[in-house]
Specification:
The chain is of the alpha+beta class. It has a single domain (20-123), classed as predicted glycosyltransferase like domains (Thrombin, subunit H). The protein is built from three helices and six strands. The protein has a six-stranded antiparallel beta barrel with strand order 1-2-3-6-5-4. The longest helix is centred in the C-terminal third of the chain and has 15 residues, at 112-126. It is globular. The termini are far apart.
């Protein structure tokens, strides 16, 4: 990175930096369920629980939940995307950040069918609202 690029990056707040996969704020938050995966699942009494998704992208989501998770935890998450017959199961995701009961989740183990359902949902969200004729 050149010196001028470093200066721009330092002056630009993280919230203004462009994401590789921009988050889309959902009009109506939708439910999800999540559970720890791997060794940590067996070392805790918490078997998972419910959450609400507020933002979503092709590679992650912002979720609010009472489930006790921490940055670095590996989880499985089942998204109940609106207007879709089947839920979208993400086999592996990592908690990247947390603030209160809100967490940033990065998707990693996404099957092809789950990726397709997620893309259809994101495409619908990014379409401008249709204007109905009187």
């Amino acid at each position: 990175m050149e010196v001028s690029e470093q200066r721009i990056a330092q002056k630009t707040p993280a919230s203004e930096q462009v994401r590789q996969h921009p988050r889309v704020r959902v009009g109506e938050p939708f439910p999800c369920s999540l559970a720890l995966v791997g060794l940590k699942r067996w070392l805790t009494s918490d078997e998972g629980g419910l959450g609400v998704v507020y933002d979503v992208s092709a590679k992650g989501a912002r979720v609010m939940t009472q489930v006790l998770i921490s940055p670095g935890d590996r989880i499985a998450i089942n998204l109940r995307l609106p207007n879709q017959a089947m839920s979208t199961f993400i086999e592996l995701a990592t908690v990247r950040w947390g603030k209160g009961q809100t967490y940033g989740i990065e998707f990693q183990g996404v099957s092809s069918p789950a990726d397709t359902r997620l893309q259809i949902f994101l495409d619908r969200l990014s379409m401008p609202p249709s204007v109905s004729a009187p």
